[in-house]
């Protein structure tokens, strides 16, 4: 790609699911472009994880943990999700970690 832009193989609803880390995004605080791997939901600042959004099939706890672990080493303050207006403008890294824990706990 280019310097400062990294593709992260996060997995999830399919093995090769990838998010993009933009090091200089969000005023140099870092941003993730997540598509539907990490889905920005209506109740911001939460995100969610699904095997199939269209069919409302949840993702397993182990896959959610893998996604959270895959993005953890990267610095990011903002997430741009799959749809217009799907943005967590700040503290997005905390949102991902808190949301992953909440999701995993809900599956127990």
UniProtKB/TrEMBL annotation:
Sorted UniProt keywords: Hydrolase
Gene Ontology MF terms in the entry: hydrolase activity
Name of the protein described by the UniProt record: MBL fold metallo-hydrolase
